[in-house]
Write a structure and sequence with these properties.
Length: 468
C-alpha cells in the first residue's frame, strides 16, 4: 500500500477536559450510561469533539474513555454506539451518527474496521475509501494508502476482454485481459479476445452445437448442413437427406433389389418403399446344387432338387448316366457303356451299374465273309477277328478263259487252253492267254481262201487279205 499525507484530524479528550468545539447543525449533549448519548447527538460539520465533558462523566458503564474517541466517527453510527460506553464522554464528536446507534455490539464491530491512532480518526479525514485507496492516520495526521498498481477492482464488466485495476495512485485504469472472454451464448461462434478486443468468429460447418444439431458455418445452430449430419445410418432402402437444414429420409422405390441376396432360395430381397427390406417369390432364383443328377427347381418360392431323369448325362465329359434316383453311374444298360458292339465283343452292364465286355467264342464265323478269297473270317475268342484257310472258297473272276482255284488259302488263276470254248466279248474260243476271241489263227475263220483273197486272224478277229 502507498500512504499519502492529507490533513490533521481531531478527537475527544479522554480525560474529560475541554475538547475542541465543533459547530453543530442540531442536537445536544446527552448523558447516558448505556450509550444513549450517541443516539441523541446531532450531525456535525467537521466532526469535532463534543461541547460538554460532563457527558463523559455519565458514562459510568464504560471502562475506558478511549472508547469515546472511537465514537467520534461521524460517518458511522455504529461507532457512536461504542462511544456511549466510554468514561470520557467525548461521544458528542460523532453525534450525527448517533441515529444509527443503540447497539453497543454494533459499535464494537465498527471499532474493528477503523484504524484509530491517538489524536486521529481516519473516518474523519477528507476523501472517501474505495478499492484503490483508503484513509489512514499516519504520525497523527490523515493520509491515503493506495492499492498496488495492477490490483483488480471488485467491479468488472464481464466479457469485455479488459480488466479494471488500480493504477497505484488511487485511480483506476483499464488493461487488456484476453482471458475475459465475451460469451454471446451462441454455441456456433467462438468467444475470442484479441489484444482486448472481443469478437465472435463463426465455428466451422458441421461442428456439434447440441444433441442432433450442428453449426452451419454462418453462426447458426441447425438440424443439418449435409445428410451425414443427421442421426442414423443410410441403408439401400432409406438414405438420410438434408433440405433447408432439416433432416429427412428418402426411400427407394418398392421393388428395388438390394445387393445382399441369398442365392438359390427362390426368393428376392427388395425394398418395400417404406425403408425396409422384404422377401418376395423369385422362381428364377434356382437352387443350383451343381449335381447333374438332380434338377434345380423353384415352385412358388419353395426350393427343391428332385432326381433328374434316368440316362441324363453326367460324369466327366458326360460319359456316365444318372440312374433316375439322383446317382451318377456308369450304366443302366449295356448301351450306356462307352464303345460299340462287334460280332466278336459286346458291351455289358451288370446290376452294380458297372460296364463290361462279353467275347464271342473263338472260331465263330463272322457274318461278313469275302467270297472267293480262299479264307474264312472268325472270332478269335478275345474280342478280335481272325482269318483261316478255306481252299473251298474259290474265287470266280468271271473270265471263261481262266481257271480259278485256291491253294493254301492263296487265290490262283490259270489261263485255259487255246480254243477252249468261251462266250465273252462276242468271242468263241480262248486264245490260251486268258482271252476269249473269235479266232486263234486264220483256220478258225469261216470261208476259204481264193486266188485273190486269203483268210486272216489278227488280234483274235477274222478277216481277209489280198493274195500276194
Amino acid at each position: 500500500m502507498v500512504a499519502a499525507s492529507l490533513t490533521a484530524c481531531g478527537g475527544g479528550d479522554d480525560g474529560g477536559g475541554e475538547p475542541q468545539q465543533p459547530t453543530r447543525d442540531s442536537g445536544a449533549d446527552v448523558t447516558s450510561p448505556d450509550g444513549a448519548a450517541g443516539a441523541a447527538g446531532g450531525t456535525i460539520e467537521a466532526g469535532a469533539g463534543g461541547s460538554s465533558g460532563s457527558a463523559g462523566n455519565a458514562g459510568a458503564a464504560g471502562s475506558s474513555g478511549a472508547a469515546g474517541n472511537a465514537g467520534a466517527a461521524g460517518s458511522s453510527g455504529a461507532a457512536g454506539n461504542a462511544g456511549a460506553g466510554g468514561s470520557s464522554g467525548a461521544a458528542g464528536q460523532g453525534g450525527d451518527a448517533g441515529a444509527a446507534g443503540g447497539d453497543p455490539d454494533g459499535g464494537a464491530d465498527a471499532q474493528q474496521d477503523v484504524e484509530v491512532e491517538a489524536g486521529c480518526d481516519p473516518t474523519a479525514c477528507p476523501g472517501v475509501d474505495d478499492a484503490c485507496g483508503h484513509r489512514v492516520c499516519s504520525d497523527g495526521g490523515c493520509a491515503m494508502e493506495y492499492a498496488a498498481d495492477g490490483t483488480a477492482t471488485p467491479t468488472q464488466d464481464a466479457g469485455d476482454c479488459r480488466k479494471v485495476v488500480c493504477d497505484g495512485a488511487g485511480s483506476t485504469k483499464s488493461v487488456v485481459d484476453d482471458d475475459d472472454f465475451p460469451d454471446d451464448s451462441n454455441p456456433c461462434t467462438s468467444d475470442i479476445c484479441t489484444d482486448g478486443e472481443p469478437s465472435h468468429a463463426d465455428l466451422s460447418s458441421g461442428t456439434s452445437c447440441g444433441e442432433d444439431l450442428v453449426c452451419d458455418g454462418a453462426g447458426a445452430c441447425v438440424g443439418c448442413v449435409q445428410a451425414s449430419d443427421c442421426a442414423g445410418q443410410d441403408t439401400e432402402c432409406a438414405t438420410r437427406t438434408c433440405e433447408d437444414n432439416k433432416c429427412g429420409v428418402a426411400y427407394m422405390a418398392a421393388g428395388t433389389p438390394v445387393s445382399v441376396q441369398t442365392p438359390g432360395d427362390c426368393l428376392k430381397s427388395q425394398c418395400d418403399g417404406s425403408g425396409d427390406v422384404e422377401s418376395v417369390v423369385d422362381d428364377d432364383d434356382l437352387p443350383v446344387d451343381n449335381d447333374p443328377c438332380t434338377l434345380d427347381v423353384c415352385t412358388s418360392g419353395a426350393a427343391s432338387n428332385p432326381p433328374a431323369p434316368a440316362k441324363t448325362a453326367c460324369g466327366v465329359g458326360g460319359e456316365d448316366v444318372c440312374d433316375g434316383a439322383g446317382v451318377c453311374v456308369a450304366c443302366i444298360e449295356a448301351g450306356d457303356c462307352p464303345g460299340s458292339d462287334t460280332e466278336c465283343a459286346t458291351r455289358t452292364c451288370d446290376p452294380a451299374h458297372v460296364c463290361g465286355v462279353q467275347y464271342t467264342a473263338e472260331g465263330t464265323l463272322l457274318a461278313g465273309q469275302l467270297v472267293g478269297d480262299c479264307l474264312q473270317r472268325t472270332c478269335d475268342g478275345n474280342g478280335g477277328e481272325q482269318s483261316t484257310i478255306d481252299d473251298f472258297d474259290m474265287p470266280d473272276d468271271g473270265n471263261d478263259c481262266t481257271i480259278d482255284s485256291c491253294s493254301g488259302g492263296v487265290v490262283t488263276q490259270v489261263a485255259s487252253a487255246a480254243r477252249t470254248g468261251c462266250d465273252d466279248d462276242n468271242g468263241a474260243m480262248c486264245d490260251g492267254s486268258g482271252h476269249c476271241v473269235v479266232c486263234v489263227d486264220a483256220t478258225d475263220c469261216a470261208g476259204v481262201d481264193t486266188d485273190c483273197l486269203k483268210k486272216t486272224c489278227i488280234d483274235g478277229m477274222c478277216g481277209t487279205a489280198p493274195t500276194a
